[in-house]
Design goal:
4-stranded parallel β-sheet, 39% helix
Length: 200
């Protein structure tokens, strides 16, 4: 799968901060049961890499690593089985390493300059982050206009309430958010079902 295929799998990519790897597989099962197959495990905790390994055992789950900020983290994520990589920003050193590897990659951008640096690297799919504090829907709409060839996944401040506003933008293929993981596992599945139906 390429990054566009992954972004179009479901309208919402759950952004996961896992503190206990033992919780990873049940959480992944609950999200996949609700229709959200693409799972981003952020490398913000010591349990993250083990969580990726656990979630990879769930049938139909597409598991990636988020908050990847260095080539070393990229190597660790791939060793753990990550199928795609998400970074909070865009740097040449990290981007060139991931591009050379052919692993699907979604770097974070917040400005026109970021997008232009991405285009220079041959990238056209980006995470708009942090979405709400970078100007919200209006900002991305304005940014996307001159960069007609680009597609986006806004992340940061996305909720069940505002996700439809973001998804209504043509260049937005999906959104990233953590609201779907709140509550018990049955509640997570129900939230996932609602999130998966946001684009009909």
């Amino acid at each position: 799968m390429n990054i566009q295929d992954i972004m179009q799998t479901a309208p919402v990519i759950p952004v996961l901060v896992i503190h206990d790897a033992a919780q990873a597989r049940p959480l992944a099962e609950a999200l996949v049961a609700g229709g959200l197959r693409v799972l981003e495990v952020t490398l913000r905790t010591p349990a993250a890499l083990d969580a990726i390994r656990e979630m990879k055992q769930v049938p139909r789950a597409i598991v990636g690593a988020g908050t990847v900020v260095s080539p070393d983290q990229f190597d660790q994520a791939i060793d753990a089985g990550a199928e795609f990589i998400v970074s909070p920003g865009l740097s040449h050193r990290l981007s060139e390493r991931i591009i050379d590897s052919k692993v699907p990659y979604l770097p974070g951008i917040a400005t026109a300059g970021d997008i232009m640096r991405g285009l220079d690297l041959g990238l056209t799919h980006f995470k708009f982050f942090p979405a709400e504090t970078s100007g919200g829907v209006k900002a991305l709409k304005a940014l996307a206009a001159p960069f007609y060839q680009c597609k986006f996944c806004p992340t940061g401040g996305i909720s069940a309430k505002n996700a439809p506003d973001w998804l209504a933008l043509d260049p937005v293929l999906c959104v990233g958010g953590s609201w779907v993981t709140e509550g018990t596992l049955p509640e997570v599945t129900e939230r996932a079902k609602k999130a998966a139906s946001l684009r009909g």
